[in-house]
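Task: complex structure prediction.
Instruction: return structure tokens for all chains below.
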Amino acid sequence: MTDLRSGTPLVEMRNISIAFGGIRAVDGVSLDLYAGEVVGLLGHNGAGKSTLIKCLSGAYQADSGEFWIEGKKAQITSPRDSRNLNIETIYQTLALADNLDAASNLFLGRELTTRFGFLDDASMEAETRRIMAQLNPNFKKFKEPVSALSGGQRQSVAIARAVYFNARILIMDEPTAALGVHETEMVADLIKELKNQGLGIFLISHDTREMMDLCDRVAVMKNGQLIGNERVEDVTEDDILSMIIMGKNPKKQQN
Amino acid sequence: MTDTTEASDASAETKSGQQDLGLIGKFLKGTEIDTRLLGMFGALALIWFGFHIYGAVFNGFGAMLTPRNLWNLSVQTSSIGIMATGMVLVIVTRHIDLSVGALLGVTGMTMGIVQVEILPQYLGLGHPLIWIVTATIGILMGMTIGAFHGWLIAYRGIPAFIVTLGGLLVWRGAAFLANNGKTISPVDSTFQLLGGGPYGTIGATGSWVVGIIVCIAIVWMMVSSRRSRQRHGFAQRPIWGELTVGGTSCALVIGSVLLVNSYPWPRGIVNQYAAANNITVPPEGLFISHGFAIPVLILVVVGVLMTILVKRTRFGRNVFAIGGNPEAAELAGINVKWMTMRIFMLMGSLAGLAAVVASARLNSATNALGLLDELYVIAAAVIGGTSLAGGIGTIYGAILGALVMQSLQSGMVLIGFDTSVQQIVVGSVLVLAVYLDNLYRKNVK
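Output:
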């Protein structure tokens, strides 16, 4: 097993904190991510996983702490900053404009234009068809607004949006929550493929088994704090569960 | 009839599981016509023929479907129609603008003062620059007030309902104070042309030129859209569908040219014009056509530009994204606050432009100019299919909505309904239209 954790990390979060009205949603969390690595974020609802990730994607602004992206200190104050740093996010809510079709959603905020500055809908649809043929060959509803799509189809639009723009860093917040067995498998395959292409992926999920399969490392949060950050080979499912539930890292206690 | 036979031929050729659609379904699928558009044309036809027949039966004269009335109707629709195109964007982004009528009032009043009391001092009475300076000031003023409203809404977090409700009172009051409630009349003679009237028209030849250019544009757009679909290998609209849509559109355009050209100048104006140009009027009178009124052309240009803005630019796409899911738009990197402010600036500019048309048409600026217009504008947008829940709406729908509202109003005036009855009818129609729209949306889903 090659050690992935060498060289400059893709992402380094140092002492990130954010509070909402006195509640410290994220409390001094430091976490890194290397190229070709999948890091799973685990924890109860309200543990601060999504909030931490939203600081990285620019949806929230951290109160304190630093982001270092590929060795450089980065200011992330809006989703635009994050996108410019090649960070793409698949949100739990999918963040789709329901009234628009798949192509419009895929290119939302980054629309292709003709040389006269007008929208190039035909190219956008063609590109959407191309990437969808890879991700979800069954996808046919290109003209309908995404409100008319099934949960899995909507999910694939959100995934397509994240992978289309050559992201270096991918954040996936419960990407399989709305999916059936077959589609979940497709997402798992996709994660493995992207990892092989050298992307760094933060994955949030409640499914410990799935995380053990997909991730290289798991980071467990509770009450806004990072409880453990362990290589998957070094822990058992029970260890992870006890970190999630008790907020104690059994590995650390043994040492 | 030919359409339907062609329809069955086409589907027989393709045989792609369209049997369950029925003839009407096939027709709609082939032509890609929005059923809502058909509904609006239906409503319009109902209103026009209804009032005409009512007039013919009960008053002995059907005045609704005369060239004169329809021409007037087109001019009356202009000011509301111009503002309704902007209201679409406001409502699509889940806001509302209750201040457009008051904005029209205050910009109209300001323009009245500028062109009658200020500019003639510097440029001289009747100077050809007066109208353009005045109109520019009016539009810029509307834009500035809109920017202020938009800033309060987007960057200070005050709901649009409250900001523009306050604006309704503030700017109506300001319109009164501007000239202490006195009416300014007449306005500059060139400026007046922007409001229509016999001289504010482009005549028969001009109307034909406009009509033919529009028809060529329609055909060109259809051909280029077809080419673009072909290039990317997307499904094509069947030829009979293209022909039906193109043919109907061009027929409507040519029909309206014929209509406005069949409305002659009144005798007094003809005599005045003849005297001024040394023409001898034959005893049977001269037939000089009105042609399209300038305000109608302004509305058409605004409609086309706004449609391009909405359909073909990133700005328009982002407007609809914000309306569909503001949070998603923000996460997609769209600057929602700045967009909101720009939308209200656009709305303000359009209210300024509508003030140009409205005050020019009345040949005066009064502090009551545009009173209750906000309600007609919102009603036009909503009747035209703009959803108050956000994310859905079209420019052509809003303009048609304005025409429907104005037709209703005009029809009731022609058959002699009281103002009070008119209000009751217009109010009820608005509520009914939204209810029907709800039913329509449920059925479509």
